[in-house]
Design goal:
The strands form four sheets. This protein has a six-stranded mixed sheet with strand order 3-14-12-13-7-8, with no helix packed on it. Strands 2-1-5-6 form a four-stranded antiparallel sheet, with no helix packed on it. 48% of the residues lie in helices and 10% in strands. It contains 18 helices and 14 strands.
Amino acid sequence: LICLKKTTSLSITTSTINDMKSVSSAASALVLILLQASISNAFYIPGVQPENFKRSDEVPVKVNAMTSIHTQIPKDYYRLPFCQPSNGPKMASENLGEFLTGNKIQNSPYTLNMLTEAYCVKLCQVTLSKIEAAKLKLHIKYGYHNNWIIDNLPSAAVGLTADGKKQKHYAGGFPLGFIASDTHEAYIYNHVNIIIDYHQPDPAVEGYRVVGFSVEPMSIHHEFQGGYDWDGEEKEGYTKMLSTCPNNAHMERGMIRSNQIVQGDEKVLYTYDVTWQHSEVPWASRWDVYLSEDHLVPAQVHWYSITNSILVVLFLSLLVISILVRNLKRDIAGYNAIAALADEEKDEDLDETGWKLVHADVFRPPGTNPMTYCVFIGTGVQLFLTTFLAVVFSAIGFLSPARRGSLMIAFLVLYMLMGTVAGYVSSRLYKSFRGRQWQLCTVLTATLFPGVAFCLFLFFNIILFFMHSSGSVPLLDVIIVAAMWCCVSIPLVFLGAYFGYKAETMEYPTITSTIARAIPTPPALLHPMVGMTVTGIVPFAAAYVEFFFIMTSLWMDQFYYVFGFTLIVFLILCITCAEVTVLLVYYQLCAENHRWWWFSFFTSGSTSFYTFIYSMFWFRTLEASKMLMTYMLYFGYMFLFCFAMLLVTGTVGALVSLWFVRKIFATIKVD
């Protein structure tokens, strides 16, 4: 009533409407530019120099950790009874990103020489103990795959389709063995056909490059000619002929008499063939077939995702502009009519309602946890810039799949550098709220999200260590990550906070009253909880198709490198969050609810809630094992992912709403 009895001169210009139109037009133009850029052929910078081999030069074969989509727990290759190098396994040089992503690359006993064919070469023979057989059966049951590497190329798997045709799968390696559907016995793939594609860039110069690498696994119960019984130690066994392999010919599946069963006291003889095939694919394009999965997923699917997202954005843009323009024009007409009335007539018009009535309360700091709000906004800006820059660098090719772990390192480095922005934003906002505990606000900005992430990572790392998983990061690398956080990230947050507190206080266009205005009971559809819980489904619907491919890459060992599409979908997601939040904040202000700070954050941030629900349904795709650790890893890291998504999308909605509220109330003149 105090606000209604004030003599108020209200005048609104149309600059707010024009600004909103220009923002919507700019967003549409940006999406169209990105779509045009994505039509051109993608490229990437490999980041490594090509290695040339001469005839008969050794081509090293390396083995990575074994992986399973059913357990999500990588295991060391030499943990199972496989053949080992003569001098024992040795670790290949790895970067921090490779360790953090569970890679463990080591040398192997396989001997390959450039352009030298090999036929059923005996590698070694292992007599399985009961414990080794049980362990091998368990890994085969859980669907573990070998991941081999030649010249930095991962091994593709050659298998059979339902109609008996050979087909290559370029991601996830090849399986250890199989379980018979009738007897449920485990059989191991103890023979591999190693197929290598090579390219000669200059026919006049002797130099060959590896441009393709695939493995065709087979299970063969080997037998020596003449009934020879080899103990696996005598050198004579390496010279004896096998009756189960053809002479000077490569092994074919039709030649297999019986498979190699896995059971105690069973002798398993490991053999391999090597086939060299000339290829016209240049070295710079050898990763193309891996990234496109030989066009297994057509580009039209991603275009469908983009089209779906653009339609959602266009619909929302038209809806927001039509509603806000119509309503603001109506408000302008009403305010001008009131301003033209005499004072006596104004006193009779006390039943006016709308967003103009909360001008003395709209910029009141949040009544609940204002410091936490500032911390969330600062961290959200940090995560937004980190994600945006990492996706941009990936889209233009700086982060190559040939450099394993490069994306992880990029995220870590960018997150640390963006700590300055996080400290600055949270401090500016906290200062505008007239907060006094600025030290605590800065500390929480620097430690809240990375602290949760590091504690979760450390907890899982300790469990994986006791499970003897290669996914357990070495202690030295854990110390390096902790040092990067404590010695680089936290100081940068304090540096940004220093400049934020030194800057002038953020000014608001209206003066906040001493006593808060009472909020009337809203209609059911305008209740804040409805908006904060239901609205998130709209931005999620704009990006859910691309979410499927991202989840497949994260949890099913698939290559993901269509970051051009990712960039477009990420921007569309942010635009959708902004438009939906602005619309609902406007309706809350019209309902005389001035508590819009947390409302704007959770309205757009609720997208993460639907993402987590989607991940719960998507989890069935993994056909996960019954191991508790599998569930802990999946839902633990998905919680962290959705928490980060909450901060990013919530920050986008909150900051755009702050701009919108300041813009419309800046047009009100209060006497």
